[in-house]
Amino acid sequence: MRTVPKAVARPSGFLDDRLGAAGFLKRNLRKIFPDHWSFLLGEIALYSFVILLLTGTFLTLWFKPSMTEVVYDGSYAPLKGVMMSEAYASSLEISFDVRGGLLIRQMHHWAALLFVAGMMVHALRVFFTGAYRKPREINWLIGVALLTLALFEGLTGYSLPDDLLSGAGLRVTEGVVISLPLVGTYIRFFLFGGEYPGDEVISRFYSIHILLIPGIILALVTAHLVLMWVQKHTQMPGKGRTNRNVVGAPFYPAFMAKSGAYFLFTLGTVAGLATFAQINPIWLYGPYTPADVSAGSQPDFYLAFLEGALRIMPPWEINVLGFTLPLSVIIPALVPLGIIVVGMAAYPFAERWITGDHREHHIADRPRNNPHRTAIGMSAVAFYGVLWLFGANDELSTTFHISLNATTYAGRVLVIAAPVLAYVLTYRICLGLQRSDAALVAHGVETGVIKRLPHGEFVEVHAPLSEESEAHLRGKEPVPMLPAGANGSGVLPERLRGPLGGLRGRMSRAYGGEKVPLANGHAPGTLGNGHVPKKQGVLPPH
Length: 542
Description:
By secondary structure, the chain is mainly alpha-helical. 59% of the residues lie in helices and 6% in strands. The chain has 18 helices and 8 strands. The strands form 4 sheets. A two-stranded antiparallel sheet has the order 1-4. It has a two-stranded antiparallel sheet with strand order 2-3. β5 and β6 form a beta hairpin. It starts with 5 loop residues before the first helix and ends in a 31-residue tail after the last helix.
């Protein structure tokens, strides 16, 4: 009989006697987690955030968040004797004089990009699979808040070195802030402490960057994980998987080992990028001065869509009650981000209102099985992608020798046309994939074996699907929609009467329902051309 070593038993007994943690640990260490590659996308963001906290702590030991002017006397010879802020001088010191400083600074920057990218991809996975539905609406809202905060966290961190590139971005930020009606001047005073550029913005951004936003993000990440743990993880459809169970591996040791390895892989990737791929070489840009701007300056990718909106927006402005509203700045600053963030936050509730579906969902959808939702998501991706691309319209014009005006006008057309085209194409692709699934369920998998029928026709023999594959395909459910009438009488429910109710009913009929039933492929047992095979013409399942 195996006995627990005293080195383990005594501390464990000590803690259990005082905290009663044995039952809690035993119960939760055996919690089952489903196994699917897409579920690891959110962990990229989580582990990147951990790397950000570790590298950021290192950087705070040497960074000086001050705009006081000093004469540079460090290791980088081209800038010796140049007047610059203490923030920029300390950033140069970290890069050239602190052992490992440049590696850590670049790891911090790469981890920031991976953090935002990981959250974006994770949000797309949750959206396309419908994992935001009841009971996970609150967790979805927390995720939307995390993504929004990450954008502002990136903005404040990007500005801290006080180099010419980040200063140009900060100048754009100041222009956007001051254009906001009523509150713009107050926000500018809060951030800059007076007229731009002032001498307070770096220290204020520093406090926001290392204390305020990270603290909120840490609290929201904790709440996000706790809710996920309590509500259990969604799982993909498959054999033996229902809304009442979870099929997978236990948290300890399987999921813990996998997550530990994945963290090390993420850390190694960030370290490799920081070692071999230079990012943000601030010494090449020089210190920020309000009179200068670097040519071809671009923000990090997660803010490029706002830059693109500013560049392709027509120069509109209106005068109201003696006040000038620069729509060419207000609209790009508020509308694109508002469409994406508000749309993401409202979608679970809008979908529930349209479909009338109040059930709990623990089985994730395959994106093809809800074509309207998938098409809407791809429209948002196309909208974001066009704005992101034209945030570099000057670089596009220079590289491909195209008129800058031509790229600007193209952006104005594509920002409307691309989402519409993406919607139509995605919807048709989803229906095509559903038809392919129906054909697989109906007559199996093509084998490449050609058989001649008694009357001379040549056909291909199909093999039945494996049980797991067939269960995966048959996990499809019709998209819920509102009933057409009460008890089959044809009388509309009260909630569907009136103009708003009529609109809701039409939207529900368009959005919901079964677009391509699985039985619409070929009749079961056929060879794919309507002919029923002989018994010897069908291959046995593998």
